[in-house]
Specification:
The protein is α/β, with parallel strands linked by helices and about 400 residues long. The chain is about 60% helix and about 10% strand. Strands 3-2-4-1-5-6-7-8 form an 8-stranded mixed beta sheet, sandwiched between helices. It is elongated and about 185 Å long. The protein binds guanosine-5'-triphosphate and magnesium ion.
Length: about 400
């Protein structure tokens, strides 16, 4: 073996040793890596629940929170609209208790009216046996003096005579029922289902009261103010009768009694300016009703009727559409002249209602039938006394019932 071969053998041994050391080192490092990865993988496995935790709260609670505030703005308009229906039930409650009291009161108030008119019917028809010419003559006299109006009275009686002659009507009761039908038919024209004191949904309601002297305009305004206040309405009154200081004082007394503001002007002031101010003030304080009084005047005086038109126009300048109602006050004891008054005031102003006062007096009641038949203007109220509650809503049926029940007694 030469030196060359020994050198190569040593080199070979060294190479093998080196390779063995290298393999061992690789093995050790692989084991360490295993140990290291083994530790990393464990936390990797436990990290999975995290996204679960994250995703769970994300989707659901948030939309709930977002959608919750949305409905909140909506209740606001609901709250706004809620008070609106409230005033409406009021009239229902108001009118309900009136009906039972009304007939008794009307009947009591109309005692004398009935005695002087329909009361006489009872004596005419109380006789036994068939209806004869004498009875029909008496009926004709009674109807002609009942303030119904000559034409209407004759129409009614002529029809009854014809039916008696044709033997269609025989007994007094049958003629009485037929007469009642005639009267109901005449009153149908002035009958309306609407509440005379219905609120104006768009603001204040202006009612102008007109009529000849002393018929009960100012008193009726006071009575109506009292009725409106009892229904919970706010009322402003205007003293459009500037001719007499006493007229202003009279309305002021009603204002104190009913706790309503009364707008007045200087004595002798232009009534149109007083009513203009009254309506303006009423609108400012958002009064539900504005009741305008005027001085009494003869329907035949054209200059005074022109002045009344001016008062109406002044109300309209203060508030569009005013006056919403123009009511003629008529004294029930005036007789047929009441129908003439109604016709002329209606031609001048376009009446929307009639108040018939003093039916507790010697009024014959027939004038209601005449006005209704001829002019077909709704009769709103009847006055049966001087006190605040002596004003009854007019219902044709209860009026006729009142007349005929007492005539049957
Ligand atoms: N018995 C009775 N008296 C009434 C009625 N209505 C009014 N009066 C009375 O009639 C009189 C005249 O009433 P007013 O209210 O002053 O009449 P007016 O239409 O305002 O009168 P002028 O303003 O003068 O045109 C007063 O004494 C009232 O008390 C009623 O229904 N029955
Ligand atoms: Mg008056």
């Amino acid at each position: 073996m030469n030196e060359e071969m020994i050198g190569m053998l040593v080199l070979g041994l060294l190479t093998v040793g080196f390779v063995w050391l290298a393999v061992k080192a690789i093995k050790r490092s692989a084991e360490r890596k295993k140990e290291l990865y083994g530790e990393d993988q464990a936390p990797a496995a436990t990290s999975e629940p995290e996204p679960v935790v994250e995703s769970a709260p994300e989707p659901e609670p948030e939309p709930v929170v977002e959608s919750a505030p949305e409905p909140e703005p909506e209740p606001a308009p609901v709250v706004e609209s809620a008070p609106e229906p409230e005033p409406e039930p009021a009239p229902v409650v108001e009118s309900a208790p009136e009906i039972p009291a009304e007939d008794a009161r009307l009947k009591a108030g109309m005692k004398r009216t009935n005695a002087s008119f329909m009361g006489k019917l009872a004596s005419i028809f109380s006789r036994k046996g068939d209806v004869d010419d004498d009875i029909m003559d008496e009926l004709e006299d009674l109807m002609l003096t009942a303030d119904v109006g000559v034409r209407l009275a004759m129409e009614m009686v002529d029809d009854l005579r014809d039916r008696v002659a044709a033997k269609e009507l025989k007994s007094g009761d049958e003629v009485r029922s037929a007469l009642r039908e005639h009267i109901e038919k005449a009153l149908e024209k002035s009958t309306t289902d609407e509440d005379a004191l219905k609120k104006n949904p768009n603001g204040s309601k202006v009612i102008l009261f007109v009529g000849v002297n002393g018929v009960g305009k100012t008193t009726s305004i006071g009575k109506i103010a009292s009725l409106l206040k009892s229904r919970g309405h706010s009322v402003v009154m205007g003293a459009g009768d500037t001719f007499r200081a006493a007229a202003v004082d009279q309305l002021k007394v009603w204002g104190e009694r009913t706790d309503c503001k009364v707008i007045t002007g200087e004595e002798g002031a232009d009534p149109a300016s007083v009513i203009f101010n009254t309506v303006r003030h009423g609108c400012e304080v958002e009064a539900d009703f504005i009741l305008a009084d005027t001085a009494g005047r003869l329907h035949t005086k054209s200059d005074l009727m022109e002045e009344l038109k001016k008062v109406g126009r002044a109300a309209g300048k203060s508030l569009d559409g005013a006056p919403h109602e123009i009511w003629l006050v008529v004294d029930g004891t005036t007789g047929q002249n009441a129908v003439l008054q109604a016709r002329q005031f209606n031609e001048a102003l376009g009446l929307t209602g009639v108040i018939l006062t003093k039916l507790d007096g010697t009024a014959k009641g027939g004038v209601v039938i005449g006005i209704s038949n001829e002019l077909a203007i709704p009769v709103r109220f009847v006055g049966v006394g001087e006190q605040a509650d002596d004003l009854r809503p007019f219902h044709a049926t209860s009026f006729v019932n009142g007349l005929f029940e007492s005539s049957a007694a």
